[in-house]
Amino acid sequence: MEERLMRLGTLCTHSFKAHLDRVRLKTSKLTERLWIDYPEAVAIVPMISENEIILVKQWRYAVGRETLEIPAGKMDYGESPRDAASRELLEETGFGAGEFNLLMRYYPAYGYSNEVINLFVAKDLVKKGDLTAVHEINKTETLTMESLFAMISAGKIMDAKTIIAISSLKSRELF
What we know:
Blueprint: E1 3-12, E2 17-24, E3 30-37, E4 41-46, E5 52-60, E6 65-69, E7 72-74, H1 81-93, E8 95-106, E9 117-127, E10 139-144, H2 145-153, H3 160-172
Parallel strand pairs: 4-9
Antiparallel strand pairs: 1-2, 2-3, 4-7, 5-6, 5-10, 8-9
Helix pairs in contact: 2-3
């Protein structure tokens, strides 16, 4: 167990808080811990058919490149995971879904963040319009699960939530 001795500083943004704490380790050594207080989030595997899913292309500033990944986003205050998944799917793809199934919940980076991602599979998709998250999503692409898994295996897709989702579906033979 680590004991927080004092908060050295906090950076607040509209999306999260980053804290720097002075802590005492179980060995009595003193050190600092930087951690990010981040809201819960959702990620969605939108299945157009039993073998095809919709992915989004977007620019990721931290890695300096466009990525291909499943739709995702943080939950709004008071919003349920299912409602957030429905909202994010519509905003990022223009599709609604008749069925949302929770695949799993996980911590994507608990070494430095308390974020939890609720991972859904969405089926019975219906086109409701164009994507509205034009400030973040460049376009959508539909890929077969086999081609997506091949891209992951070849290192062409490195997004953790997409890798976790597709690997989990493949291991469960859910597609």
